Structures are given as structure tokens and as C-alpha cells.
Request: fold
Amino acid sequence: MEQIIAKKIVPVAVIERAADAVPLAGALREGGLNAIEVTLRTDAAFDAVAAIRAAYPDMAVGVGTVLDPAQVKKARQVGAVFGVAPGLNERVVLAAREADLPFIPGVMTPSEVEKALTLGFHLLKFFPAEASGGVKMLEALAGPYAHTGVRFIPLGGINLSNLSAYLALPVVAAVGGTWFVSKKLISARDWSGIVRQTREAVSAAYG
Reply:
């Protein structure tokens, strides 16, 4: 979590071929990021996590789109060091706690924020960010909840043009992004393009 927050950007990647995992991770590292969230939307996801962890033990490799407790257990087995969910499933977050897997549940509404706080989670994914009101919604949520210490990682519609606006909010710990690790770039194995766009994203984050 500290690595993610320090860099301000979490790359969120859908990896279709496990063989692409290590080159992708290498491109991210060259571009200035040492963390990645591999979404569990493909058959290659767990193998991709294991491959990256083996190649780069110091990289913060997590899993996303965690929807059931079995995925939590498998994520731990392959070496994931954090997990992320699009929503707040109590069975999943409790499984993550039992497995000692740092976890970021997803929220969108005040009721979900309160439920997460009740369960002891203070770092939350705000999803889908732009579709849910974006910066204005987070400003509104900050009113009643900022004093609790809650912080958000918005994802969904974040790009080079708006990431700075999100990161300017005190309640935003980091942003999640897919544009610089898109399926198109990965399928084309355009590692130099990913390096370039990652550098642009990091530069914008610290602008």
C-alpha cells in the first residue's frame, strides 16, 4: 500500500497471455512505476501474477476484480501482495483479512463508505469514478467522512487529462489507470509505448 500511495498511480491491467506479464511489468518499472494490479478477468491472471512476482520480487503485485473468497486464497498462493474489489462484498473482505491480504474494497455511495469503515477499511476504491460524479462526488463524500481518515483510489474514466484534478483532493490517496496499460497496447506488445505513456502519467501525477 505504501508503494502504491507513494507513486500516486496504480496501473490496472487485463493480461490475456501470461507470457506478456513480465515484459509488461518491466515496461512499467522503466516508466517509473513499481506496482501493478492484475485483474482476475482472464484465465492467465494468476499465472501472470506469479510470473511477475518471480521476476521482480520487489514489485507490489496485486489482483483486482476479486469477487469471491476462493480468489483471495488463490491470490495469496501465487504471491499477490494486495487485492482490490469493484464492490463491497463482506465475505470477500473478511476472507482477505483472514488471509492477511491487504485489501481495497470498492464503494460508490455514503452507505457503502460507512459499511467499509464499520469493517475497519479506510483505504477504498471509488468506482466507477467518472460515471459516479467524479471529482465532485469525492468532494461531497469528503464532507462527512474525511475526518475518519478514509482515503480513496478512484478508478473508471481516469486518464491523463483528469488525473491531476483527482490527485489534488486530500481524500485521494492515488488513482487507478488503464489507459497506459490498455489491452490494445498489451496485445500489440507495444512495450516502448507503455514505457512512454507511463512516464507521461507519472509526470502528470507529480506535475
